[in-house]
Design brief:
There is one protein chain. The chain is an alpha+beta fold and 154 residues long. It has helices spanning 22-30, 32-38, 64-77, 80-98, 109-120, 140-146, and strands at residues 9-19, 41-44, 49-56.
Length: 154
C-alpha cells in the first residue's frame, strides 16, 4: 500500500466542515490530490469551506479538522513531495502498529502459522516499522536461565 500510495480511509459518521482563508483554500485546490492520497475525502461546501467526509483510518478518533489543518500547513511549510512521502510512510507505520498483535492476546494455530508465513516474506523481518526488534536470538543457556531451569553437566 505504501508504494501504491493508497491510504485506508475511515468514513466519518458526522462530516466535519472546515472554513479556510483564501490562501489556504487556494492551496488546497491546487494540491487536492495530495490530500486524497493520505486518505482525506472532502468536497467543497460554500465559497471557502470544505466538508471532510473521511480521513486516514489510522488517525482513529482524532479531530478531523485538526488533522486536516496539520496536513495543510505541513504541506505549505515544507517540500510538499518529501513531506507527503514521509507522511504516507508514517501513516502506514502507525497502521501497522495499531494492527499489531498485542501482549497477552491468544492466537489460534492457524493465526500463528499465518503470522510466521507473513514474517518470512518481509524484507526486514526482525524489526517493526519503527525499527524496534521483534525477534531476538538467545543462547540456549540464557533461555533455560530465564525459565529457571538448570542444566546438569555430565
Amino acid at each position: 500500500r505504501v508504494q501504491q500510495r493508497k491510504a485506508q480511509v475511515q468514513t466519518l459518521m458526522f462530516p466535519c466542515a472546515v472554513t479556510l482563508n483564501a490562501l489556504d483554500f487556494s492551496y488546497y485546490k491546487e494540491h487536492q490530490e495530495n490530500f486524497e492520497l493520505t486518505g482525506f475525502e472532502m468536497e467543497e461546501f460554500g465559497e471557502l469551506s470544505l466538508v471532510i467526509r473521511s480521513l486516514p483510518a489510522v488517525l482513529g478518533d482524532q479531530d478531523p479538522k485538526t488533522a486536516f489543518l496539520a496536513l495543510l500547513h505541513g504541506l505549505q511549510e515544507e517540500n510538499p513531495q518529501e513531506f507527503l512521502t514521509e507522511l504516507i510512510y508514517n501513516l502506514a507505520a502507525m497502521g501497522a502498529c495499531k494492527g499489531a498483535i498485542k501482549a497477552n492476546r491468544r492466537l489460534t494455530q492457524s493465526e500463528m502459522d499465518l503470522l510466521l508465513r507473513d514474517l518470512r516474506s518481509c524484507r526486514e523481518p526482525v524489526y517493526c516499522p519503527h525499527g524496534r526488534p521483534i525477534i531476538l536470538k538467545l543462547p540456549g543457556k540464557t533461555v533455560l536461565r530465564l525459565f529457571q531451569r538448570t542444566i546438569k553437566d555430565d
